[in-house]
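I am sending you the entry underneath: sequence plus fold tokens. Let me know what the token row says about the fold:
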Amino acid sequence: MRLLLWMALALVAVNGAGSGAQPGDGFLLLTLLDNQSFNAGAIVYLDPHNPAAVSTLATNVTPGAFHNFVRMAPGNVDMVAAEASLTGASLLRFDPAGGAATIAATLVGATNGFELDGDDTWILANEPTSLVGVRHGDGRLSSFLLSAPGTFNEVAILREGGVHYAVGVYTQSTVAAPKILGADRSGTITTLLATATVLNRLSGIEVDPRTGDLLTTDFDGPSSVPPEPGGGVEFNRVHPGGAVTPLCAFAAANALKVAQDNTAWVAGFVTSPTVENAVLHYDLAHGAVITILALPAIPSSRWSISSLELYGSQALTARGQGGPGAVIAIDLKSHRKNAAGAFYRVALSFGRRPGLQLANGEWLHLHLSNDLFVVTVLNRVPGICQGFAGVLDAGGAAQASVHLPASFPRHLGLTVFAAAVFLSATEVVQVTNTHWFEL
């Protein structure tokens, strides 16, 4: 079975796993599923500037399973992927050479999507309707069982407006039904969007940190059979009040990722002149398609893209939770060519907006006029915020931390957002993602 799978993947990979090649900063990571038998999968990667060269990082570790989702791991070197099957799912960590280690096995229900919360816990959207927490460091499980129509197909960590998690619901209902739910770890749910005419068969959901909107993908649109009623498209913007703005049509859009430069990558298909797996690059600022990369090296007759990620996108990771004497670790890691020896500055804020676009085109997603941002970016609380300014080591890494006093109260329920900027003597090397922790 494994030999046959590797032979099949030879059609996919230009440089197979074990060739010495590894993904680089900004490379697209794609998970694949066998769309004929749903019993095989792979993680592949490609340089978006050279999309013809598709390399295999790993095939499925669990027999009869396929890869269903991938995200960068804490530390920004390894990747975490879900393997799903008809009997359950497992969460695995992969190093850049494709070596695998199990984080959690025999999860109940297929894992359709997940994101990393600020306390080292992956929040998984599992079939049919449950959120599951898996601690990255030791695989400890926690379950937040919910009851809702449809199937939980993806989750985004919002942490705004009192909503921790935005859950995308897959449903083919012909009447108004919840398409996006708000949820927390207590199992409380709220309806963020219910509609009958758009976001049918929702497949992906991400936060747009610049606006606070939710970006979604779904399978129904002009090219679906039958076409979605009302002229809907497969890539949409959902505003906090529930209004839906169509962005563009992209057949069977199945996953998306927002990049630091205010663009989005979307996985789906092109249908002309032939049906091919493809990835669309979209300019969120101007509402325009930048490019569509057809991927004939991933034959659509056998494989479908189940998720995508940008290698190196977790350049900052917060790990911890507030409380008396608590310490929150902040890990920094860049894969950019000028990162070694670059100066860095970390800042905190109680919000993501309004942010700032820096000279390299990337956005710092922190509320810049927030008092917490001001005192932390100026390093005015060195006893609490330690290592918030310094120099990245030869590997482009550094560590910072937040040390709360013993008198600090418990369970305030406030989310603190963290981000950093890496600078050389002549340029902005990188603006990191925004991560968070809860006080």
